[in-house]
Automatic annotation (TrEMBL):
Reactions mediated catalytically: a UDP-3-O-[(3R)-3-hydroxyacyl]-alpha-D-glucosamine + a (3R)-hydroxyacyl-[ACP] = a UDP-2-N,3-O-bis[(3R)-3-hydroxyacyl]-alpha-D-glucosamine + holo-[ACP] + H(+)
Pfam families per the UniProt record, alphabetical: Hexapep (PF00132), LpxD (PF04613)
Organism from which the protein derives: Desulfurella multipotens
Protein name: UDP-3-O-acylglucosamine N-acyltransferase
Family listed: Belongs to the transferase hexapeptide repeat family. LpxD subfamily.
Lineage of producing organism: Bacteria, Pseudomonadati, Campylobacterota, Desulfurellia, Desulfurellales
Entry EC no(s): 2.3.1.191
Name of encoding gene: lpxD
Length: 342
């Protein structure tokens, strides 16, 4: 338990309120008690400020705290970031290192840090290298693969051979890193498998959700650049490159050899064809299909995609098309009648 003032310093905010408020955790406005800090980042929840029992509330600089003189506040530039920092402080995952389960299999040629955690029934293959990281139960790490420091690999993750993973990487359960790329050549009516001999590189500070597939390159590398975040159920094909600090939301599919720029957001169920380039700072909205290069940053929607502002106008017209068509038919019929009379 810490004081609200101490918490404000930890999350880079300014505390305004009673001096003796103590905080032991984080909760929503509706469920917080007097020892919890809560937050407001979405205006639609403002109605709960008056009734909340929270010891203090994280808000942003634009919020008018003078309307709630009986409440205690931590004012931040970004309330949502303050909330995230508070959660990190109170609930940071605490794992004990320096443990190698006797039920795990670690090849004699593998190099595993003394401070690493290797859980039950995990398998560490030949020449693998693992830093000060946490390998949970039933994880497979293939030959010659490298995992850096401060990584968390959750149960039932498969990391195939020749995969390189940097520092501070999180991979959630069920994901497969380095599966074969989907590559075939057709000959006499049959599909001949093209061996996939490349690798996957995951740079620092990447988080990969559950049941994600990242295919190894046919040659060279499939690369996820530092700081990128990948949601559950995403497919990344061979030789794809994801730029820095990009976000891929659930059920995206990226076809082979496509290059995604930095700070790109692909919303849910976006599909991108192969061998394309997507510009930095691009946003593609949900369920859109990208079939050509996006050379200019902006917001894009539709199948195929085009500028979001134009897509909104088109979408507004679509429900009216039957009426428009009917009116056109009426006008055509009237025109024919006029032509007959002439």
């Amino acid at each position: 338990m810490i004081s609200a003032l101490e918490l404000s310093q930890i999350i880079n905010g300014t505390y305004i309120g009673e001096k003796d408020i103590k905080i032991d955790g984080v909760a929503s406005l509706m469920r917080a008690d007097e020892y919890k800090v809560s937050f407001l980042s979405n205006k639609k929840y403002t109605k709960y400020i008056s009734s909340t029992k929270a010891g203090c509330i994280i808000v942003d600089e634009l919020f008018d705290i003078s309307l709630y003189k009986d409440k205690n506040f931590i004012v931040c530039k970004n309330a949502y970031l303050g909330f995230a920092l508070a959660l990190t402080y109170f609930y940071k995952t605490k794992l004990d290192g320096n443990f190698k389960s006797p039920k795990a299999t670690i090849d004699g040629s593998a190099i595993v840090s003394e401070n690493a955690y290797i859980g039950d029934f995990s398998y560490i293959a030949k020449n693998a290298k693992i830093g000060n990281s946490y390998i949970m139960p039933m994880v497979y790490v293939g030959e010659n693969s490298i995992i850096g420091d401060n990584c968390i690999i959750y149960p039932n993750v498969t990391i195939r051979e020749n995969v390189e993973i940097g520092n501070n990487v999180i991979i959630h359960s069920g994901s497969v890193i380095g599966s074969d790329g989907f590559g075939y050549v057709k000959d006499n009516g049959r599909h001949y498998k093209i061996p996939q001999i490349g690798k996957v590189i995951i740079e620092d500070d990447v988080e990969i959700g559950s049941n994600v597939s990242i295919d190894r390159a046919t040659l060279d590398e499939t690369i996820i650049r530092k700081g990128s975040k990948i949601d559950n159920l995403v497919q990344i094909a061979h030789n794809v490159e994801i730029g820095e600090n990009s976000i891929l939301v659930s059920q995206c599919g990226i076809s082979g050899s496509t290059k995604i720029g930095n700070n790109v957001i692909l919303a849910g169920q976006v599909g991108i064809a192969g061998h394309l380039t997507i510009a930095d700072n691009t946003i593609v909205t949900a369920k859109s299909g990208v079939g050509t290069n996006i050379k200019k940053s902006g917001i894009y929607s539709g199948i195929p995609v085009y500028e979001h502002s134009k897509w909104l106008k088109s979408s507004a017209i679509i429900p009216r098309l039957p009426d428009i068509y009917r009116k056109i038919q009426e006008l055509e019929n009237r025109l024919k009648e006029l032509e007959k009379n002439d």
